[in-house]
Design a protein that fits this description.
There is one protein chain. The protein is α/β, with parallel strands linked by helices. It has 2 domains: 2-134 and 297-362, Response regulator (Rossmann fold); 136-262, Response regulator (Rossmann fold). It has helices at 2-20, 37-45, 70-84, 95-108, 123-126, 136-149, 163-175, 197-206, 221-229, 245-251, 278-292, 299-318, 327-337; strands spanning 24-30, 53-54, 57-65, 88-91, 112-114, 129-131, 154-160, 182-183, 187-189, 210-214, 236-237, 259-262, 343-344, 349-350, 366-371, 374-377. The strands form 4 sheets. A 6-stranded mixed β-sheet has the order 2-3-1-4-5-6, sandwiched between helices. Strands 7, 8, 9, 10 and 11 form a 5-stranded parallel β-sheet that branches. Helix 2 (37-45) packs across helix 12 and helix 9 (221-229) packs parallel to helix 10 (245-251). The longest helix has 20 residues, at 299-318.
Length: 379
């Protein structure tokens, strides 16, 4: 009888210990192959640099490739929810793919840390999705202000023929009237297209003072190259989805002079000493380039890191209310995420609310330009 009691006590202690050290599971879907790979790979790389715990508890990341396809992203998300019983999801690196994951997140009542800007969501989906990158309106307003200051009155537009192209176009057309700018074209192209000669011909025929490109990563260079080859002499503006090294490597000399908004980590060394994210950005850039090589820094890896920081802040609160692996924990994590305050990331300072699931302000953006094959702070 004594040995039986000891066995029961030992078993109880083991259960308590297991509960006290419950593992948090995060499902991650990224396009590390396909047209979005130049973004997806840096997103994935950053997981080598994030903490091994969330809220003090061990964390396990299940990372799957969605091949930059929305259907695959949705499939991965359904697997995470139904089979892996994850506590939260992260992904993807394309707007259509992230939107597909948001639907699954809402249906499965599992928080999603979206790693790309998102289109407006229905209230039920909005409740479960939290967006790490800066909104297109926030970033493109910096572009429009710069154009206004330079006397630009008309601008042509060419962007992806998908949700990302729509997001950038909708942002600039909503902002343009207040800055006295008229958008005179709305040309589109596919992420995998190798030529946009016809679209560029229409843009140059319209005679705009400047052109705005709504692409991202390496495919964002396709219209850039075509515009330069066609002899367009005005300024060419891009967006925060373009700011990485593969864009410059693809565009080569044609990329010189490009202007784009981005998070401050891209030019961390050039920031004022009192810039709120400088310390975090510098530390991350140093560790990322030590792991992946000089000049490998990019905004996308920073989004992964910031997303993990948000989960870490929220997990500490949620763990006081429920155990990982349960619906109660997922709801507690969701509620905690929409109330995180003053989380300093590589891109900005996050202050979320039940009605604002992004929480970034103008401290999360700077304008950069390409100078001698490098992204530099535009002063």
């Amino acid at each position: 009888m004594k040995s039986f009691r000891l066995a029961v006590i030992a078993a109880s202690c083991a259960l308590v210990a297991a509960a006290a050290n419950a593992e948090i599971t995060i499902g991650v879907s990224l396009g590390t192959t396909g047209p979005g790979a130049s973004l997806g790979i840096p997103y994935k790389n950053a997981f080598q640099l994030v903490p091994k715990t969330l809220g003090g508890e061990p964390v396990r990341y299940i990372i799957l490739d969605d091949e930059s396809k929305p259907d695959n992203a949705a499939k991965n998300a359904r697997k995470f929810v139904a089979e892996d019983k994850v506590d939260a999801m992260m992904g993807s690196n394309g707007v259509p793919s992230a939107a597909a994951m948001a639907q699954v997140a809402a249906e499965g009542k599992t928080p999603l840390i979206a790693l790309t800007p998102m289109p407006p969501l229905a209230p039920d989906r909005q409740a479960w999705s939290f967006v790490v990158p800066q909104t297109t309106e926030l970033m493109m307003s910096a572009v429009m202000q710069h154009m206004k200051a330079k006397g630009v009155k008309t601008a042509g537009y060419i962007g992806f023929s998908d949700t990302w192209g729509d997001l950038v176009y909708n942002a600039i057309t909503s902002l343009a009237p207040a800055d006295g700018i008229k958008i005179v074209t709305n040309e589109r192209y596919g992420r995998a297209d190798t030529s946009v000669a016809g679209q560029v011909l229409k843009i140059t025929a319209a005679g705009p003072d400047a052109v705005i490109v709504g692409g991202s990563g390496s495919p964002g260079a396709t219209p850039q190259i075509a515009l330069v080859e066609r002899g367009f002499k005005g300024p060419i503006y891009h967006n925060h989805g373009t700011v990485n090294l593969p864009f410059i490597q693809t565009g080569k000399k044609a990329a010189e002079g490009v202007i784009a908004p981005t998070g401050a980590l891209i030019v961390a060394e050039e920031l004022p000493e009192n810039f709120p994210t400088k310390k975090v950005s510098l530390d991350f850039v140093k560790r990322y380039e030590a792991a992946f090589g000089p000049a490998s820094r990019n905004a996308f890896a920073g989004y992964t890191y910031d997303g993990v920081m948000l989960l870490d802040a929220a997990a500490g609160v949620a763990l006081k209310k429920a155990k990982p692996g349960t619906p109660e924990f997922r709801e507690a994590l969701r509620a905690a995420l929409e109330n995180v305050k003053n989380v300093v990331g590589t891109h900005g300072v996050y202050n979320m609310t039940p009605t604002n699931h992004n929480g970034l302000d103008e401290r999360a953006r700077v304008l950069v330009h390409v100078v001698n094959g490098e992204w530099r702070l535009l002063k």
